[in-house]
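Request: Show me your protein:
***
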Amino acid sequence: MPVAIITGASKGLGRALAEALAARGWDLVLDARSEGVLKETAAWVAGHGTGVRASAGDVTDPVHRSALVEAARELGGCDLVVSNASALGAEPLVRLDELPLAGLRRALEVNVVAALGLVQEALPLLRAARAGAVITVSSDAAAEAYETWGGYGASKAALDHLSAVLGEEEPGLRVWAVDPGDMATDLYAAAVPDDDDPRPEPGSVVPAFLRLLDERPASGRYGAPALLEGRR
């Protein structure tokens, strides 16, 4: 069975993607900071009959990242790394003149440094896989200037660039940065708690990610709405 490592997998998009892959027979290594919620998610996903390893921890911890890769190795290798864990930098979001620099450092550590560190750790297994792939979860804030989204958007823009360079440096892999679009997630609620407008559930964009895995287009940046509409 193919094996995927998914960070930020206890809720939202990470959980929805884990469920979809498990339904397709993937074995999974799931990461999140909250152990209780992660265990519940892992038990639910394991109901599909696949191997599931849950490892609670902070992706900025290199020891934790090594443990994730080792768990994948024990399941048979690593075919896919999904960097979904994210930090906002401030909750709720604030303008740049108020953004705590410690918060910005945290966003960069989680969204960029840890994502690269995990890929570096997993690269030997990804290169050995029949169809190795990396998915980094981006945001439209990486490409558009939205008030109060400066720190988070800057971190996602940096992640996009790292993903693009990785795609050039690793032609044997597929490296996709994916902007999932608006979703009803805890992250968005923490970012803009006063926004009550309805948003799509994370599961609604999972077919876009599955299309990438099925069709394996060239490495690059993709928007989930366009993929769902049959465009790239």
In short: The two ends are 28 Å apart (CA to CA). The chain is about 45% helix and 15% strand. The first strand starts at residue 3 and ends at 6. Residues 84 and 151 are 17 Å apart (CA to CA).
